[in-house]
Specification:
This protein is of the alpha+beta class. The protein folds into three domains: 76 residues, Zinc/RING finger domain, C3HC4 (zinc finger) (Herpes Virus-1, 2-Layer Sandwich); 125 residues; 192 residues, Jelly Rolls (Sandwich). It has ten helices and 24 strands. The protein has a seven-stranded antiparallel beta sheet. The longest helix has 108 residues. It is elongated and about 180 Å long. One of its GO terms (cellular component) is cytoplasm.
């Protein structure tokens, strides 16, 4: 197939199959000419040997021979095209509208005429600028597709635009078919649309600029976050190292203090025992003397010996108040308190046992039979949100009727269990566990003595543990997902900020005797401000 390229085309030297300049042109009996490869491949795809143009059929297949005359003319045409395309002037005209009257060299058109349907360079445009008849012709910026600007119905140039039908019109279209429509000139419509496009462009430019600035701000914020994280890690390492060093030094000092006090007590004890041993020796000597005096049974002899025998009283102390100081080593309570305090402080930063808690994850779903009629539960039982209209729900004994609460279907009466709830986007919520025997109908007070071990979030920034009395909790960061851990035997209910892996609050020292159920409240809707759902999410651990 031919593959020659050109800056201009000529139908006299073009194959009607490949639409390019002939390569090895061959003529068939009807007189039409094609590239040898083009007609050969065409006949390979059809069942009849026919001319692609006039449809004349041949049987058998005609012999193909090169048309020497057309081949020679096509080659000359190709050479002429190559010469033109190789000149700097023609290269500069590539992609431009060319004057239809120029021969060689070609010139770029400066205007196109919608009456003549031709494009003119500056020289050939002069008649349109000087001759009265030609001055009435419609001139536009040079374009290549002048035929597309001609009305196919009336053969007149498009000069108008119908706003109702959104289409181009010639003068005849306007007069005949669009007399009652809103019709404007192409210039008017283009001006209006260019103005609108200009505004749209300004708007899009503003949107781009705004988003580019937002992107820059985010990148800057990320840089700040990374810097803060580096500082936090550095500070953490410094503080932890200082704490460990202080504890090690305290351990050395405490060991030395205990040993010193032990030595002092041992010395004091030895001194006491030495002095007591000396007094015991004196007392024993007196006892021996007393024993000798009382050996005879004869009264006369006994009195005679007693009168002649003098017993000296031993020099002894009154040891009634003697007490060795052994309370100096009673540090267990203080050390236990130290351990609890350190663990508590560290757990508010990041509980190192958090991953262990997650191992006790259980599958929890909302129980529709306990849900207040204003609460809507998803089909999978994993989401609950406060609606705008009450459902028709039976007033079952287990249902909350006055407050926006719901329990889980699953209850637990032993062991450990853990679950997580997404609270992102909610300025109010309640979470926790409750005893199976709680009051669900009347006035409900959230406190452990009433069977509720809960925390709640209010006003988008206030965390409270409903411990009775309530405990206001510090909020380092607003949690987006809360984990709840229960150790039934230990009487512990703990709440965690899952993303920070830090403890929020723990109820400890409880004695559970009934089944415990996970407890939830998405709270009031607040006109859509608190419409987000509480979502029970799968527990995932990234080890």
């Amino acid at each position: 197939m031919a593959s020659a390229t050109s800056l201009v085309t000529d139908d006299n030297f073009s194959c009607s199959i490949c639409l390019d300049v002939f390569t090895k042109p061959v003529s068939i009996p009807c007189g039409h000419t094609f590239c040898q490869d083009c007609i050969t491949k065409h006949w390979e795809t059809v069942s009849l040997f026919e001319c692609p143009l006039c449809k004349e059929t041949y049987l058998p297949k005609p012999m193909l021979r090169v048309n020497i005359f057309i081949a020679d003319m096509a080659e000359r045409f190709k050479n002429a095209v190559r010469r033109k395309s190789s000149s700097p002037l023609q290269e500069a005209l590539v992609g431009k509208v060319l004057c239809n009257l120029c021969t060689d060299p070609m010139s770029a058109a400066v205007k196109s005429c919608l009456v003549c349907f031709m494009s003119f360079c500056k020289t050939h445009l002069q008649p349109h600028q000087t001759l009265p008849n030609l001055q009435r012709h419609k001139l536009i910026q040079p374009v290549n597709d002048l035929q597309n600007r001609l009305c196919k119905t009336h053969g007149e140039p498009f000069e108008f635009f119908c706003r109702g039908d959104q289409m181009f019109l010639c003068l005849s279209c306007k007069v005949k078919d669009h007399r009652t429509h809103t019709v404007v000139t192409l210039e008017e419509e283009a001006k209006i649309r260019k103005t609108k496009l200009g505004k749209d462009k300004e708007s899009t430019d503003q949107l781009i600029e705004t988003r580019q600035q937002m992107s820059l701000d985010i990148r800057s914020s990320l840089d700040g976050v990374r810097k803060n994280a580096e500082q936090a890690l550095s500070y953490k390492n410094h503080v932890m190292a200082a704490v460990v060093d202080y504890i090690q030094r305290s351990q050395i000092e405490l060991t030395e203090v205990i040993n010193t006090k032990l030595q002092q007590i041992e010395k004091e004890g030895i001194n006491f025992t030495t002095e007591l041993d000396a007094e015991i020796l004196q007392i024993k000597e007196k006892k021996e003397q007393l024993d000798k005096t009382s050996l005879t049974d004869d009264d006369f002899t006994f009195l005679e010996n007693a009168l002649s025998f003098t017993v000296s009283s031993p020099q002894v102390k009154n040891w009634a108040d003697l007490k060795l100081n052994t309370a100096e080593f009673a540090i267990q309570d203080a050390m236990d308190e130290l351990q609890r305090s350190v663990k508590s402080k560290i757990n508010t930063l990041c509980d190192p046992t958090f991953r262990e808690k997650q191992r006790y994850a259980v599958d929890v779903t909302f129980d529709p039979d306990t849900a207040h009629p204003l609460l809507n539960i998803s089909a999978d039982g994993k989401q609950v949100a406060t609606g705008y209209q009450k459902r028709n729900a039976d007033n079952k004994p287990e249902r909350f009727q006055k407050v926006l609460n719901v329990l889980a279907k699953e209850g637990f009466s032993s062991g450990k269990f853990y679950y997580e709830v997404q609270v992102k986007g909610k300025p109010q919520w309640d979470l926790g566990v409750v005893s199976e025997s709680i009051n669900r109908k009347g006035d409900i007070r959230l406190s452990p003595k009433n069977g509720y071990w809960t925390i709640w979030f209010r006003n988008g920034n206030e965390l409270t543990a409903n411990a009775g009395p309530a405990v206001n909790l510090p909020v380092r960061q607003i949690p987006e997902k809360v984990g709840v851990f229960v150790d039934y035997e230990e009487g512990q209910v703990s709440f965690y900020d899952v993303d920070a892996r830090a403890i929020i609050f723990s109820f400890t020292g409880n004695s559970f005797t009934t089944k415990l159920f996970p407890f939830f409240s998405p709270c009031i809707n607040e006109g859509g401000k608190n419409s987000a759902a509480l979502i029970i999410t799968p527990v995932t651990t990234n080890h």
